[in-house]
Queue: 2 jobs
Job 1
Amino acid sequence: MLISEPILDYDQALDAFAASNGARDVPGLYHAVRKLGYFSSGDRSAAAVMRTGRGACTAKHILLRDLLRRHGERADVELVAGDFAAGIPEADSMPDPLRAMIRAAGVRDFHCYVAWQGPDREMRLDATWPDALAAHGFGMNADWAGIGHTR
């Protein structure tokens, strides 16, 4: 669901987002956010994700955290540093310099995910990549059912 009106009540917007996606539990909330498109812009707010239906890891995970908290779960967004290129599969359409950069690694970047306190332990939930990127080799976590870390 996209929210076209200005968000005056954030909690109501979260409730509307969850309801319109049929999300009633942790896996449902996770997949509702995961299925949103990926887009990196200057606006990293959850409100922007709900308005546009897409967002980068920061905005998507802020939205997921807030949805989980709204449903009584303990969740936080965590930031980690790593090699951005290590997680990007090569594609035939990439120019040679970009492919070389990915193979060489060392592209320092930061990534967010949600740390959710599940029933037995804390779990890392990464809802960054939507289904549309599966054809390009990205992991979708489409089968995550609430047990263990996402991949």
Job 2
Amino acid sequence: MHNTGYQRGKRQFRMFTFSRLNGSYKLDRDSSILEFESPHVSFIFSAYDKKLIQELVSSLIIRDDFRLGSSQVKVVSIDQIHETVSEKMQIRFLTPVTMYSTFQLDDKKKTYFYSPLEEEFSGLIQANALKKYEAFHGKPLAVDKPLSLTPLHRERIKPITSKFKSTLIKGWTGDFLLEGDLDLIQLTYDVGLGAKNSNGHGLYEIVRNLRD
């Protein structure tokens, strides 16, 4: 599923996301290597396809130790997070949310990453979520309420640049207001908002539900 995903037109969507490793660490600035000081680390994995989660959990239970990079790790516990989504929520990004467009300039492929403060950002977020829904279900979703993502406390919205393989990705963290169709919001909660979800972008937690 990581290599194939769900198809919509020429686009493929890998319907999962994950957090960074959480734990006490120190950074070697010369080598850019994180060295975890605590013997215990944790991370969040989230997917829209519940079968994928069940298969992952079963695999970890059967084989409770595995290699992560150059380190041998052992699974101590697996917990399920229960959160109820609503049509209006304050959310906080645990990993940066990113949206971008690609275009040709002087025979070179260029990528433009949108800021959440730009007009186009929220509309692109909605279009991306609708494409994911159609790719998974095989049919478009008719929404009565458009999906919108609005930054709260604009001065606290933080740009984060990360590197995946040889590609630089610019994303944003902070608190946002998320409103829209409940089915579409559930999808974004499970798989992440925006682009590059399967690279660990767009994962969020619910700060509070804001039901009218």
